[in-house]
Design brief:
The structure is a single chain. The chain has about 350 residues and is mostly helical. The protein folds into 2 domains: about 90 residues, DNA polymerase, domain 1, CATH 1.10.150; about 170 residues, hpI Integrase, Chain A (Orthogonal Bundle), CATH 1.10.443. Helix content is about 50%, strand content about 5%. Strands 1-2-3 form a 3-stranded antiparallel β-sheet, with no helix packed on it. The longest helix has 20 residues. The C terminus is likely disordered.
C-alpha cells in the first residue's frame, strides 16, 4: 500500500465567496433543483462555479439580490465577458462566453418559474455565435509516442500514468470520464470500457486497443495495489495520495508529460481525444463510428475532425492536382530542350543511333 503523501497547498480550487450575498439562498435552491432533476454532479459543479462569478461581479457593483438584475445589467455582464482576459492574457473564447451566459439564462428562467421574479431579464439575451473552430493543436503520431515515453514505468506512479495516457488515446475519453471510471467498468477480456453518465448523462461502451489493455493490465497487477489506501476503494485510477483520481489531476498529468516531452501545444488531456479521432479518420474509419466513440449527439460536432489534417490534404493535393502534373511535365520538357543546346546556346541537331 502507498504511504499517505501530503497534498501540496492550493491543490483544490476554492469557491468564490458569495455566501454573504442575497443571491446565495437562491443559488443553493437552484442547485438542489438541478440534482432532483437528475443533472450530473459535475454539471452542477460547473454551474455553481459559473454563477458564483456572476454573483461576485454583481456584488462588487452593489447588486445583492436577483430582483435587482435587469436586462441592461446582463448585457453589461455579457460585454464584461467579451473584454475579460485570462491569466495568460488571452481573451475568453466565444464558446466559453456562450456557456457562461447559458448558465445565467437557465438560472433566471428557474427564478421566474419559481415566482421569485416577476419577469425573466435574461429571456432576450442573445448568446454569441459559436464558431466551428478547428482544434488549435494536434498531436502527431510521433508526439503521442513521445508523451507515452515520458512515463517512468519503473515506478508504480509511472505505470499508472502510462496506462491513463494509453486509455485516453485508445478510446478518446474526456478527462472527467477517465477519472470517474470504476474497476468494474473495465473489461480487459472483452477489451472494452463502460462510460457511465458521460457528457449529457449518456452511457456508452467503447473498445480498448491491445496496447492500452497491456498497460492497464500491468497497472492493475503491479501498480494499483501499491497506490491505493482504502481497501474498499473502487476507483480504477488512484492518485499519488491514495485517493480517487480527479479530472483536474489527469489534466495536470498530461501537462507535465507535454513539458517533459518538450511539446509546445495548447491543451492537455483533450489533445489525446483530438488525436485519436483524426488519426482514425486518416486511416479510413467511418466518421459515424468516430461520432459514437466520442459520444457526440450530432454528427456536426464530429465533422470538425475531417478538416484538421492539413498535412494529409496537402500530400493528396500535391500528388493528384492536375496543375502540378502539367507543371512537372513542362519542367521535364524544359530540361530536355536545354540539354540539346551546345555551349553557345545554339540548338544541336538530334541524331539517332540508327
Amino acid at each position: 500500500m502507498a504511504k499517505n503523501k501530503k497534498k501540496p497547498g492550493g491543490y483544490q480550487r476554492d469557491k468564490l465567496p458569495i455566501e454573504h450575498t442575497g443571491f446565495y439562498p437562491y443559488l443553493r435552491e437552484y442547485l438542489e433543483y438541478r440534482l432532483i432533476q437528475n443533472y450530473a454532479i459535475e454539471s452542477n459543479r460547473r454551474h455553481d462555479s459559473t454563477l458564483r462569478k456572476f454573483i461576485l461581479w454583481s456584488d462588487e457593483r452593489g447588486l445583492d439580490d436577483p430582483r435587482a438584475i435587469t436586462k441592461p445589467i446582463l448585457e453589461r455582464y455579457k460585454k464584461h465577458l467579451y473584454y475579460a482576459r485570462k491569466k495568460n492574457g488571452e481573451p475568453m473564447s466565444f464558446n466559453s462566453q456562450a456557456v457562461q451566459l447559458s448558465c445565467l439564462k437557465g438560472f433566471f428562467k428557474w427564478l421566474t418559474r419559481q415566482n421569485h421574479l416577476l419577469y425573466n431579464p435574461a429571456s432576450e439575451i442573445e448568446l454569441p455565435r459559436r464558431p466551428q473552430q478547428l482544434p488549435r493543436s494536434l498531436l502527431s503520431l510521433e508526439d503521442v509516442q513521445d508523451l507515452m515515453n515520458t512515463a517512468d514505468v519503473e515506478t508504480a506512479e509511472g505505470i499508472r500514468d502510462r496506462a491513463i495516457m494509453e486509455l485516453l488515446y485508445s478510446s478518446g475519453l474526456r478527462r472527467q470520464e477517465c477519472a470517474n471510471l470504476k474497476l468494474q467498468d473495465l473489461d480487459l477480456k472483452q477489451q472494452t470500457v463502460f462510460i457511465r453518465e458521460g457528457k449529457g448523462g449518456k452511457d456508452r461502451l467503447l473498445p480498448v486497443g491491445d496496447c492500452a489493455c497491456q498497460w492497464l493490465k500491468k497497472y492493475l497487477d503491479d501498480s494499483r495495489g501499491e497506490l491505493v489506501l482504502a481497501q474498499d476503494g473502487y476507483a480504477l485510477f488512484i492518485s499519488d495520495y491514495g485517493e480517487d483520481y480527479s479530472g483536474d489531476g489527469i489534466g495536470r498529468l498530461v501537462k507535465r508529460a507535454m513539458k517533459k516531452a518538450e511539446i509546445d501545444k495548447a491543451g492537455s488531456a483533450h489533445l489525446f481525444r483530438h488525436a485519436m479521432a483524426t488519426h482514425m479518420l486518416e486511416n479510413g474509419a467511418d466518421i459515424r463510428y468516430i461520432q459514437v466513440i466520442l459520444g457526440h449527439s450530432s454528427l456536426r460536432s464530429t465533422q470538425v475532425y475531417t478538416r484538421v489534417s492539413v498535412e494529409k490534404l496537402r500530400a493528396i493535393h500535391q500528388a493528384t492536382h492536375p496543375a502540378k502534373m502539367k507543371r512537372d511535365k513542362e519542367k521535364v520538357d524544359s530540361k530536355t530542350a536545354n540539354s540539346n543546346k551546345d555551349a553557345t546556346g545554339e540548338k544541336m541537331p538530334v541524331t539517332s543511333d540508327d
